[in-house]
Amino acid sequence: MGKMVSIEGLNKFRSKLKNLTYRSGPAVERGLKRGALQIFREAQQEVPVDEGNLKGSGFVRQTAGRGLSAEFTIGYTASYAVYVHENLDAAHGAEYNTKYEAERTKYSAKLRDEKGRFLKGSGEKTVTASKYKKRGENQKAKFLEDPARRNIPAVVKFVQEEVVGAIKKI
After folding, report:
1. d(CA 12, CA 111)
2. CA neighbor of 158 nearest in space, from 41, 16, 17, 19
3. What is the sign of the dihedral through the CA atoms of 97, 49, 75 and 155?
4. How many angstroms separate the Cα of 15 from the Cα of each of 9, 11, 67, 92?
5. What is the 3-state secondary structure (H, E, C) of 122-148?
6. Beta carbons within 10 angstroms of residue 61's beta carbon
7. What is the three-class DSSP state of 37?
8. DSSP per residue over 156-168, as a string?
9. Is the pTM of this model over 0.90?
10. What are the residue ranges spanned by the domains of the chain?
11. Phi, psi at residue 63, to the nearest 5°?
12. C-alpha 103: how far from its chain's center?
């Protein structure tokens, strides 16, 4: 008959392993959320802005699961968001500023007095003043896709940091 072997610390190890599984799910969720917020932050810097409706419609939401199965969605709800995102022919950012410099100067001078204030009763003010105003240099199409692609390593790093932090607490 064989001799019984007892491994010292096995119960303690099992307890730690159970704790690790319990803690790693929320840690993964936190890391994914940090990653989604990082992508959104960069997308907000690149989204083309005219009146601000598109930029203001941006969101980050947890759309499925909890813990290890958590999913986050980053997007824009403006009806024309997909069109702006996919239209690679439109001028945005620095390209837009260069393209419309002459019009911006012409209309700006026409609508302002010698002190730079808008003229009262200028019927063109609302249309032309915003139409050719200077845009942010980084604005472009693919304002969501490019930050998502660039930040894949950052998302992995955030998840790793959160899981390692959870393990250290055990």
Report:
1. 77
2. 41
3. positive
4. 10, 6, 20, 56
5. CCCHHHHHHHCCCCCCCCCCCCCHHHH
6. 11
7. helix
8. HHHHHHHHHHHHH
9. no
10. 10-80+140-168, 93-134
11. -105, -10
12. 32
Place of tokens 């790093």: 157
**CA-based nearest residue to 58, from 36, 31, 30:** 36
60 strand-pairing partners: 74
* Residues 116, 128: Cα–Cα separation, whole Å: 15
pLDDT band, residue 126 (cuts 50/70/90): very low
Query: In this structure, what token pair is assigned to residue 88?
Result: 């690679």
Distance between CA atoms of 85 and 108, rounded to whole angstroms? 29
d(CA 27, CA 68): 8
For residue 103, what are the contacts with CB-CB under 8 A and spacing of at least 6?
Answer: 131, 132
34-89 pLDDT, tens digit each: 999 999 999 999 898 877 899 999 999 999 999 888 999 999 999 999 988 888 77
Instruction: Using alpha carbons, select from 76, 67, 61, 55 the residue that is nearest to residue 26.
Output: 67
